[in-house]
Design goal:
By secondary structure, the protein is an all-alpha fold. It folds into 2 domains: 128 residues, no CATH class; 130 residues, no CATH class. It is 67% helix and 0% strand. It has 15 helices and no strands. The protein is globular and about 75 Å long. The mean pLDDT is 85.
Length: 290
């Protein structure tokens, strides 16, 4: 905790209510273009993560109305934008973890009211300066362990390799971030070729980590259908993933035409191989039921 930061945070203390920011919309649209490559993938990620969290809740025993559960955060995000908020509202991760600790609807209400009051009185920066980040990380680690356990516990044993495969893009993202932060901390220059020459394929890790959540979902889906010997379906998902990569929605840091064409070629080649596998010894491509 930094005493100076805590002291400075009290400059924000005071009661204030949000005001309409509709008058800023015109200026915002004029300046939004540079941020679209980051905003669009983030929106897609938020949408799919909310779906994942609903699925996680259903596996835990609570089935929610999906359209309603998705529309409420979307509506609140739009409402928040009229009040000047740049932050999207999504369904929070970790339903099994919160459930295991006894949290129910009251937890959400208390959390929401507490944050609302802190924001109204300008105390958010004070709280963030007092509570260190390391105090919050154990909670996230616990939630991560619970949902990881759930993923393996509720998955058919034959599909567990696909679940493990889905972690690889996330690991790539972690490795990429650590390497870049280490280089920045030492004041060095990022040189992909020099790193590759020393056995650190950072560019490859970076490509793999682009849109890590979405990439993990897609490659796990492809793997599941390969395990089930549904090669044509797996080939279809490979082509879809390749198209997304081609336009930079996956395996890239920005959206654009032919942004990820190299990766797209790889997925296209995978699709061709999968189609060939479907017709090679086709009599064996039937899953036995015992």
């Amino acid at each position: 905790m930094d005493p100076q930061a805590v002291g400075d945070s009290f400059n924000n203390v005071g009661f204030s209510l949000p005001g309409l920011a509709v008058n800023l919309f015109g200026r915002g649209f004029a300046q939004i273009a540079p941020f679209l490559p980051a905003a669009i993938p983030l929106a897609i990620y938020d949408f799919l993560e909310s779906l994942d969290n609903l699925e996680s809740a259903e596996v835990s025993g609570e089935a929610y109305n999906v359209p309603k559960a998705m529309l409420v955060p979307a509506g609140l995000t739009i409402l928040g934008s009229f009040l000047g908020s740049p932050f999207p509202t999504i369904i929070y991760i970790g339903h099994p973890g919160w459930k295991s600790t006894g949290a129910r609807i009251g937890y959400s209400w208390v959390t929401g009211v507490a944050i609302l009051l802190l924001a109204f009185f300008g105390l958010m920066s004070t709280i963030l300066s007092i509570i260190p980040l390391v105090a919050l990380l154990p909670i996230l680690m616990y939630i991560g362990m619970v949902i990881t356990t759930q993923a393996f516990a509720t998955t058919d044993k034959k599909h567990m390799p696909a679940v493990a495969l889905s972690f690889i893009p996330l690991i790539a993202g972690f490795v990429t971030l650590q390497i870049k932060n280490a280089i920045a901390a030492t004041g060095g220059t990022l040189d992909y070729q020099a790193l590759a020459n020393t056995g650190i394929p950072l560019l490859g890790w970076e490509r793999l980590a682009g849109g890590d959540i979405l990439v993990g979902m897609m490659i796990a889906t492809i793997a599941i259908f390969i395990i089930d010997k549904k090669y044509l379906v797996a080939a279809t998902y490979s082509l879809i993933t390749g198209v997304l990569a081609f336009f930079g929605f996956l395996h890239a840091t920005q959206i654009g035409f032919a942004t990820g064409w190299q990766v797209a070629i790889g997925y296209g080649a995978m699709a061709i191989v999968l189609v060939a596998m479907n017709y090679y010894r086709s009599h064996e491509n039937v899953e036995s039921v015992t």
